[in-house]
Amino acid sequence: MPHQWVPLDLGESDLDADDPEEQMGSKEKNWVRIADDDRRWLVKVARVDERDGTISGEDWAEWLVQHIANSVGVPTAHVRPALFEGQRATASRSMLRNDSERLIHGNELLSARFPNYDQSIRGENPGYTLSAVQDAVVGIPGPPDLSIRLEAFDTIAGYLMCDALVAGRDRHHENWGVIRRGGDRWLAPSFDHGNALGFQERDAKRMRLLRDRELFDRWVRRGTSQHFVGRPTLVDLAIGALRVSSRDAQDFWIGHLHDFQPDGVDAELEPVPHDVMSEVSRRFVVSLLDTNRRRLLDGYSAAPA
Ligand SMILES: Nc1ncnc2c1ncn2[C@@H]1O[C@H](COP(=O)(O)OP(=O)(O)OP(=O)(O)O)[C@@H](O)[C@H]1O
Ligand SMILES: [Mg+2]
Question: Tell me, which fold does domain 101-302 have in CATH?
């Protein structure tokens, strides 16, 4: 069934009165309540370039990546397009069912496992390695909404594969986590996908990149992790994670990637208004997905098993 683009119309009066951070709607991120839903939603307003008023594509990127992720098997927070006080935004439905659940971010898990881990670093972090992540989540299962049973790290390998597919560079240690309820813990679905699919580029640049294959390939190769040590390419990072995952996990993720059809994304984008996402952005996204899917599949088959 095609997805729908039906923005939630939100404003100051929808802010969650119980928000512990007492956000007043002045920031770009706010928790809101909507009718007939007992969970709150996190609203993020798309950034606007002050110089010329260009609105970044964070909203369509966040919305589209969830659908791409789901089609390669990755469970995600549920995201809807939104308007907040008339500004383009997205709303992400809380992954926590109620107050008995808590989200523990990756940096907290890494610190618990490695007392010297520096939680405060936002860029490249010397302690942020695949093997550290693997150690920090040992014994924790993947999300219950995953269609097969996998351990947390095996699932994270799929998140990294999806990041590489969509050129999402922002998987820092607070952009994944574990949900805890009482003595139970499981990996949270993937969230925060707005920094992907070339959301920040201008259409003129996308056009130039689409016309010049060499330029395009160079742009794609600049897709590196901003946070993992050594800033590896997203493709190398994902393949590294897959290669240390279980056989079942590798087969599951690579099988989904194999079946994924970048061309099909065009049809998924039909409900998105053209003033929100331009024609050239759509072509750019399909080309990017096609290229990254190939890079991942080729890299995976070339990497030693
Ligand atoms: N659907 C969700 N359910 C529960 N918590 C969420 C959800 N979405 C986001 N959060 C929480 O809110 C925080 C900020 O959200 P998110 O990462 O999407 O925003 P951001 O501003 O893009 O973050 P960043 O600082 O990574 O740029 C997350 O780190 C997480 O703790
Ligand atoms: Mg984040």
Answer: 1.10.1070
- Shortest-distance ligand to the CA of residue 42: 1
Ligand 1 center to 209 CA (angstroms): 31
Q: Which of 32, 175, 187 to mutate to test the pocket of ligand 1 (most atoms within 8 A of CB)?
A: 175
CA angle 75, 80, 159 (to 5 degrees): 25
**6, HSE (Cβ side, Cα atoms, 13 Å):** 3
For residue range 192-224, what is the model confidence (pLDDT) as tens digits?
999 999 999 999 999 999 999 999 999 999 999
Interatomic CA distance for residues 236 and 271, integer angstroms: 34
| Tens-place pLDDT, residues 106-141 | 999 999 999 999 999 989 999 999 999 999 999 999
CATH 1.10.1070.20 domain position(s) in the chain = 101-302
pLDDT band for position 1 (50/70/90)?
Answer: low
Q: Where in the chain is the domain with CATH 3.30.200.120?
A: 8-93
Ligand 1: does its nearest atom lie under 6 Å from the Cβ of 164? no
Beta carbons of 253 and 161 less than 8 angstroms apart: yes
Structurally, what CATH architecture does the domain formed by 8-93 represent? 2-Layer Sandwich (3.30)
